[in-house]
Amino acid sequence: MHCCKKIKQLLSICLLMLFATTALAGSSSMNIRSASLAPLDDSYALNADVDMKFSEKMEEAISKGFELNFLIEFQLAKPRKYWFDDEVVTVTHHVTLSYHALSRQFLVIRGDQQKAFVRLDEATDDLSEISDLKVFQKSEVEKGEHYKAAVLMRLDPKKLPKVLQGDAMGSDDWKMSSQRFEWVPSLFK
Asked: How far apart are CA 13 and CA 6, in angstroms?
């Protein structure tokens, strides 16, 4: 009798774990693993590595030709001891992911640059690598000052087609935003 009760408890725990794993498998996620600033000629560029996974609904929408627009939000600030940080730069960049049915290619569009991919996972890999994205001029920072940088990447729900906006409002499948990744950059080496 005691053994039967323990088996039931073990089965209940296993089913609960299986349910939780299945529920997580269907949802989308985005996580910034690393970020840094690199000096260019007269500016600084953002480099970041983002881990992203699309939900099945998002993958289906992309393959049907719906555009997904992402925002990369960067901020540089001077920390203050007794007041709010002094904002130096706040920049937002747009990146679009779409599927072109005639050419059967996934497109990643950053500003005036467009890259084409045969498979969605290739396009996702490109989308998840932020490299050499100009975020501010060297003239905007001062030597000897300390700065704090932050980056966040998210799906822009306002740019979703009207057909998808209603579905996106109440569903975790469409909630795709990274954490706010903060670090202290070494600007003057």
From this structure: 11
